Amino acid sequence: MKQTVTFVLLFLSFLSFSQETDKEKELAMKRANNYVYEGNSLISEEDFISAEMEYRMAISEQSSLAVGTYNLAHAYIENGNPEEALFRLDQVVKTSTSKSEKHKAFHNMGNVLMQNEKCKEAVEAYKSALRNNPSDDETRYNLSVAKACAEEQKEQEDQNKDQDQDQNDENQDDQDKKEDQENQDQEGDNEDDEKDKGDQDEQDGDEEQDDEGKPEEDKKDEDKGDKEKKEQPQKPQPQPGQLSPQQINSLLEAMNNQEQKVQEKMNAEKQKGVKIKTDKDW
Predict the structure, then answer these.
(1) Global pTM?
(2) First to last CA, the chain
């Protein structure tokens, strides 16, 4: 009997707690709906900042209330904040248990992505929306538009890649031509230097020759010989009306010969008057 009474009391306590919990949830849901309602009113007045605050209050009161998060995402869309809008729509998808709510969230995600020219991502969002509601013709139409847009973007990307590759190839060709030209210019400069060096050597050789084409060294030897000749004593040249040294020597020699002949003649005459002894005296 005592155990039965204890069980009844526990049951009544649990029932009371459950009733209080349910009542609290009802009150939280009611407050959340009120915040959503206020937010919707502010959105209609284009007061996006105040509306965002109301939607946030609704989410804090009832985090599982998808409508509050959904409407907050819509407020971000209207206010031109696509990144935050996508974040809130993703929250709806993760927290909601209703396929209808998920369908709406994915559908709006696709719309936001299309507005920002992210066609490939929009295709996936619309596909997810159709998984939750295959009968929505509007989502199906948006999917076909997104597919066409994604294909066009892919073709444009491929074209841009080809153009970039062509530009890179052209730039490489220009670089190769520039390097070839620089090498040719360098080779030309080297040839000019060699030519200038040869001209200088030829000029140096020309400078070592005189006007008659003789080597400068030969000319130096000739100049040296001329100098030595100049340094040697010059024989006196006979002046007009004067005898040369050779003529004087010849005259002197002739005079000596004549004098010798005269002397010999005189001696011969002296010898005629003198008797020559043939024997010796004892």
Answers:
(1) 0.51
(2) 225
